């Protein structure tokens, strides 16, 4: 039986459980223009976030045993939605609200916050990046990064990560010791703060019932950037809200937007945003399929869009996950991420982050090596992409492994990507 310390270690090394996610690799993602069979999925391996789990359940802290029991129940529910032939199980449906027009929420232009610099939709290259670089706080190319697992082997790549992806649940304290160590070496962070099924709903958050907890977290994020002399730090409320099984019972897309509005307003009222006197930049993270033009409107990125006044960076998660449950070959960086780049161009010419990406080494390591090399070319061809974060973990199944650690050729390919001209971005001072 796990003792308290080992339980915390187990949860920190399996962050899928933090959010009621199954320890299977995937979130259900319909096929995109890459030609996958219907019901294809996007890899979400069990994540290594580190730190102390602390679950809040509508104002009351669950005991460790009750939390673990709840996790087991939610895991089974989510696993059922991802099981069988790789297609989405029907599951419970939320009533779909209509997202309000950009910038009309309480955190938008009417909320008293200065909007970001005007950008010209549809532009590429320097004309677009004059504005996008300001919104991202990045200049000179894209930031090369990954998750904490990649950061732990950064020595093999010959350099530190410029940006590291970290995950928190509502009620957890920021920063963890590992995150402090990363920031002390000069790495900035992309930090997500999520509620989970059974926790505060979007409506509860929008109504202000979690204000004290959220405000304290936002202040801590900004203070960490100041303390470690980071010109920018990146924050996302409720990453991947479009993955219904992992957000069951939290609310509709319209309610998500209202919650985002409110969280954004809290930061604005405390003057924590980059365009005030703070250092926080706002990143909306969705799975890659949400940006597909063929996505049903109620499940599309537009349904979750808070508005250009409240989002500084558009971010997508996506994987070449052949060898994982129900997956087929054929994904490329272009097929996965071009729709997100196009969405950002159409919404103010915003910058783009690839917040999670990776490839399996199945059926051979050459597949993984080639995908990494293709990503280097794709980033160089799309200067709107201003950060990429490799997901260096394994999922569930004998062939569902995105880790580069066992493969010298993949390590060499990722090291070459890190050294490439397109990946020499740095934070503006």
Q: How would you state the average pLDDT, rounded?
A: 77
Q: How many angstroms does the end-to-end distance come to?
A: 50 Å
Classify the secondary structure makeup into a structural class: alpha/beta
Please give the CATH class: Alpha Beta
Q: How many structural domains? A: 1
Written as H for each helix and E for each strand, in order along the chain, the element string is: HEEEEHHEEHHEHEHHEHEEHEHEHE
In helices, the fraction of residues equals 25-40%
Specify the biggest β-sheet. Answer: 8 strands, parallel, barrel
Low-confidence stretches: 1-130
CATH fold-level label: TIM Barrel
Q: Could you tell me the radius of gyration in angstroms?
A: 20 Å
What overall geometry do the principal axes of the alpha carbons give? globular
- Total count of strands: 14
Beta-strand content: 15-25%
CATH homologous superfamily identity: Glycosidases
Number of contiguous helices: 12
Characterize the structure shown.
- With 429 residues, this protein is α/β, with parallel strands linked by helices.
- It has a single domain, classed as TIM Barrel, CATH 3.20.20.80.
- Helices cover 32% and strands 16% of the residues.
- The chain has helices spanning 4-13, 64-82, 126-136, 148-151, 154-157, 177-184, 202-206, 211-227, 253-269, 333-346, 365-381, 408-419; strands spanning 26-28, 41-43, 56-57, 60-61, 138-139, 143-147, 163-169, 188-194, 233-237, 280-287, 313-320, 352-359, 385-390, 426-427.
- Helix 11 (365-381) packs parallel to helix 12.
- The radius of gyration is 20 Å and the shape is globular.
- The termini are far apart.
């Amino acid at each position: 039986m796990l003792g308290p310390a080992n339980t915390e270690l187990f949860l920190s090394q399996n962050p899928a459980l933090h959010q009621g996610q199954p320890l299977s690799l995937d979130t259900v993602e319909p096929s995109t223009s890459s030609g996958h069979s219907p019901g294809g999925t996007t890899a979400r391996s069990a994540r290594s976030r580190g730190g102390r789990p602390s679950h809040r359940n509508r104002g009351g802290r669950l005991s460790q045993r009750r939390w673990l029991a709840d996790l087991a129940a939610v895991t089974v529910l989510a696993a059922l939605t991802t099981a069988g032939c790789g297609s989405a199980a029907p599951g419970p449906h939320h009533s779909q609200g209509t997202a309000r027009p950009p910038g009309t929420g309480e955190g938008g232009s009417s909320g008293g916050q200065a909007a970001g610099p005007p950008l010209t939709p549809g532009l590429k290259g320097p004309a677009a990046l004059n504005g996008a670089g300001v919104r991202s706080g990045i200049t000179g190319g894209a930031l090369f990064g990954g998750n904490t697992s990649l950061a732990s082997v950064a020595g093999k790549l010959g350099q530190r990560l410029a940006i590291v992806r970290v995950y928190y649940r509502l009620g957890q304290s920021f920063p963890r010791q590992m995150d402090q160590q990363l920031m002390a070496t000069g790495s900035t962070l992309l930090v997500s703060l999520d509620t989970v099924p059974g926790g505060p709903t979007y409506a509860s958050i929008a109504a202000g019932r979690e204000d004290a907890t959220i405000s304290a977290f936002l202040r801590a994020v900004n203070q960490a950037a100041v303390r470690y002399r980071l010109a920018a730090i990146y924050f996302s409320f409720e990453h991947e809200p479009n993955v219904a099984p992992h957000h069951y019972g939290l609310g509709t897309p319209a309610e998500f937007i209202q919650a985002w509005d409110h969280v954004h307003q809290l930061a604005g009222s405390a003057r924590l945003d980059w365009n005030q006197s703070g250092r926080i930049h706002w990143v909306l993270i969705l799975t890659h399929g949400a940006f597909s033009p063929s996505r049903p409107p109620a499940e599309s990125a537009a349904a979750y869009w808070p508005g250009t006044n409240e989002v500084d960076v558009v971010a997508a998660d996506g994987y070449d996950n052949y060898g994982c449950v129900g997956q087929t070959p054929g994904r490329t960086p272009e097929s996965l991420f071009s729709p997100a780049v196009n969405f950002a161009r159409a919404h103010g010419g915003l910058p783009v982050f690839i917040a999670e990406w990776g490839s399996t080494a199945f059926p051979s390591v050459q597949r993984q090596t080639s995908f990494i090399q293709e990503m280097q070319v794709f980033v160089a061809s799309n200067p709107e992409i201003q950060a990429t974060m490799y997901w260096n973990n394994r999922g569930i199944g004998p062939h569902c492994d995105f880790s580069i650690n066992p493969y010298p050729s993949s390590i060499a390919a990722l090291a070459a990507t890190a050294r490439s001209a397109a990946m020499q971005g740095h934070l503006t001072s």
